[in-house]
Amino acid sequence: MDRGQVTADGCHVEVYLLLPPNGEAEIVHAAVPPGASILELGSGRGRVTHPLLGLGHEVVAVDDSPAMLAHVRAETVCARIDDLDLGRTFDVVLLGSHLINTERDEDRRAMLATARRHLGPDGRLVVEWHPPEWFDTAASGQGGQLGEVTLELADVVREGDLLSATVRYSARGQRWDQEFTCRRLALDEVLASADLVFDGWLTADRSWFAARRGDKAKS
Ligand SMILES: C[S@@+](CC[C@H](N)C(=O)[O-])C[C@H]1O[C@@H](n2cnc3c(N)ncnc32)[C@H](O)[C@@H]1O
After folding, report:
1. Is there a single domain that holds both residue 104 and residue 211?
2. What is the mean pLDDT of each run of 10 residues along the chain (219 residues)?
3. Ligand 1: centre distance to CA 42 (Å)
4. Is 38 exposed, middle or buried (0-12, 13-18, 19+ CB in 10 A)?
5. Within this chain, do residues 211 and 141 fall inside the same structural domain, yes or no?
6. Residue 89 sits in which domain range?
7. Residue 24: inside a domain, yes or no?
8. Which of 5, 6, 11 to mutate to test ligand 1, by most ligand atoms within 8 A of the CB atom?
9. Do 64 and 149 fall into the same domain?
10. Rounded to two decimals, what is the model's pTM?
């Protein structure tokens, strides 16, 4: 059976089209100046991009999936994040969807180098991640509802700093599985190695934070 288009990292385009925004754009908007220009890394089909446009931001959306980008109503760049160099900087770089928790250290280094390269002198990097405590509490059977999509975590396995699991999405009588492995991170170390410094939590559950360029660290 045709299960629709799937991105290189295993996201089902069909599912992302059904998933509504979940307040992500409002978190970003509250953390940055009005009208700030935003480079969104891993934008997908524009689930967060479109509300950001509605909040008055200019957004450049980057993704390596043409199938996702076909739905984005903003300037798009179809490219890997890792070696992206647009030759310009932004007020804000957004790295959402826990991409920073990739199990591959070299991919994380490359993504953060891209983020750093595109941050203006006073720019702010805004990140959504799995905080360390999530690795202790994530469990099979947890889940929720987003719009018409039911989500459930299954097959959770821990091995050292790594957590592997499957997210089960169901809607309209269909089910889609996405397997993933993510890594628990020591944040200060990760940021320092990319010449970035922590610049505050954006949500009480610590699943969003901001960072600045290391050369602009505020005392
Ligand atoms: C989990 S989806 C989230 C999409 C969007 N941020 C959202 O919240 O709806 C992750 C997206 O990042 C893209 N992606 C993941 N790794 C990437 C990479 N290294 N370079 C470019 N795109 C990447 C995938 O193609 C996918 O569209």
Report:
1. yes
2. 78 97 98 98 98 98 98 98 98 98 98 98 98 98 97 98 98 97 97 97 98 76
3. 3
4. buried
5. no
6. 13-131+185-216
7. yes
8. 11
9. no
10. 0.96
